[in-house]
What we know:
Blueprint: H1 2-14, H2 36-54, H3 59-84, H4 93-106, H5 120-124, E1 128-131, E2 138-141, H6 145-167, H7 172-191, H8 194-197, E3 210-211, E4 214-215, H9 220-242, H10 245-255, H11 257-262, H12 267-293, H13 303-316, H14 321-353, H15 367-381, H16 398-408, E5 431-440, E6 443-453, E7 458-462, H17 469-476, E8 484-489, E9 492-493, H18 499-505, E10 507-509, H19 522-529, H20 538-543, H21 546-563, H22 583-596, E11 601-605, H23 613-629, E12 632-636, H24 640-646, E13 649-654, E14 657-662, H25 664-669, H26 671-678, H27 680-684
Parallel strand pairs: 7-12, 7-13, 10-11, 11-12
Antiparallel strand pairs: 1-2, 3-4, 5-6, 5-8, 8-9, 13-14
Bound molecules: adenosine-5'-diphosphate and magnesium ion.
Amino acid sequence: MIKRATxxxxxxxxxxxxxxxxxxxxxxxxxxxxxxxxVGTALxxxxxxxxPLLIDRNDADIDSAANALAFASLALGLNIVVGFxxxxxxxxxxxxxxxxxxxxxxxxxxxMPAWSGFWEPFQWLHLVARVHQDSGDLVHxxxxxxxMLPLSAAVAALFGILFGAPTLRLKxxxxxxxTLGFGEIVxxxxxxxxxxxxxxxxxxxxxAPQLFGYSFGVTAMPYYYVGVGMVALLIFTSTRLKFSRIxxxxxxxxxxxxxxxxxxxxxxxxxxxxxxxxxxxxxxxGTYFVAKLQTATPEMFMFPVxxxxxxxxxxxxxxxxxxxxxxxxxxxxLQSWFLEDLSQWLHALGRLIHVEWLQHVELASSIExxxxxxxxxxxxYRRQGLxxxxxxxxxxxxxxxxxxxxxxxxxxVKRLRVLGDATYRGPDPLLEIxxxxxxxxxxxxxRSVGLTVPAHSVVAVIGPNGxxxxxxxxxxxxxxxADSGSxxxxxxxxxxxxxxxxLGRGMAxxxxxxxxxxxxxxxxxxxxxxxxxxxxxxxxALLRLPxxxxxEREAREHCLEILSLFGNxxxxxxxxxxxxLSYANRRRVEIARALASNPKLLLLDEPTAGMNPAETxxxxxxxxxxxxxxxxxxxxxxxxxxxVSLADNVVVLDHGxxxxxxxxxxVRRDEEVIRAYLGRSAAVA
Length: 685
Ligand code: ADP
Ligand code: MG
């Protein structure tokens, strides 16, 4: 069963995002499912390559197409930042400007320092030329376009990290405002640094690229083909990154930052990575753009450009690689081809029906208004964009749903070997908390709480609402800072460590109010849980060498086996988006996600909340079998029968203080516990 599920899921995800719309057409059905995306890609590129020959248009139109390709590259870059990692960047054009000026300055006569022996090695490398002048020789920068493409990408990436490091702590609107600021600052600096950038006048005489001694000059055709190559490379890069450990980490951050951190994703690192890669795309595009125009002025990189790229992404489909390319090309072509024609038609119409104002409409000058209208219509009628990033899978049929309820009633699957060796055998207790105090302003959420979890045990934490149980979990896992006390895990102090480090040590958790990644599938959610156990970096994701492929395949199979721990509840839904799941199934996915990190200790915060008695019993049995396998568990639970059946030891909290501790039977009879739980009258009776 698992094999079959794996096969279908694998096929489905290679199907990718782009060509789902092709599936409805009948001739397309002749092509095997797994080949369709490749056929689609091949057709797209065949079209792109033959396009200048197909149309009987002039150089200006090919030039517009080349500009459209530049915007497609920018959209792909911003898509990594906004679409994948969910970081709203309103100043993206800043990186476009940095890339543009990096090339512009190093390939023009703007900077001409005096010649000295220092420059000689650079002359040998053809990076500079010596210009003879009466007043003394000067240096002329002649760095090649082809060298500058990756170099300005690297420079822009560096600025991405520089801008990102102080700002990426911010979220949502705050981040948007700060990036807006960067977007404004860069053109201002450019304008006010005339010695390097020639100020508002802009750079002139930027060298055109050369290939085998042939200069591209001002004809659009060669630039068009460089643009096609660039977009192809960036599509490839984006797709490879998206469907990898890196892409999953970005999307986890986008969906729920806290949960991503708790599942082992280093937020700062991955946000910076997204910022740097996005900036690199813009940097290379800037070089391309300036080489094509052979000039650069600060006006080319102002705020409206950032907004335009953002609109292209939203129009095409945020997070969808092919979508944003399509969005960028359509909007750019609309702007440069059709608005002129459309204006002419309106003028003609105005003359025909004698309407004065129609004869003077200039649509090209109201392009921002038109973009705004497009955006409003997209929001109203097709929010997910032209090509949506997430494919919705059809809900299971009624018979499929009832079939699995019967199956799930069978005893839990004995496939626990997938969990690896979770047992901790060190001399110290697995978790030891001493004198832990946590304050929220005046409120003391935990007061000198101590708790010991021996290896291979189940400890239940109970107490009325607001007694500090969840705060205990949050503090231990690094989400909330403690005011005093110590926390040791497997003998090592962990208080104050970042959440992703705590997970790396072998402690995984679930949340009281389920925190899944809503727009990812069940399988993707669980695979994020494996993040800390996998090693693929950006280069590995890009090259996808055999080692990476193997890691990915094994991770996928491992996760499917973990899903199968929950009988037939999750497996049939493995490629369903979790937001379409029932409440109980979401709880199961969250536990599966925690298990995927191969923990030694599992912290479950009210896992059976919202489940009916049958489901509660089923989950309790599953928790029990996890325990039998050797996993230590701390359980926050209100249902006392569950506590009694599972826990070796019970800790009772009330108002942030530990009021009792002992075996379930002892605690159940403790008067203070009864009072805290049921009120004074119950204690007396
Ligand atoms: P429990 O899980 O036992 O129901 P909690 O640990 O969620 O209780 O909350 C304990 C107390 O701490 C409550 O009074 C709650 O309002 C408070 N609290 C929890 N988290 C925060 C926070 N981030 N900021 C301020 N107060 C908080
Ligand atoms: Mg709670």
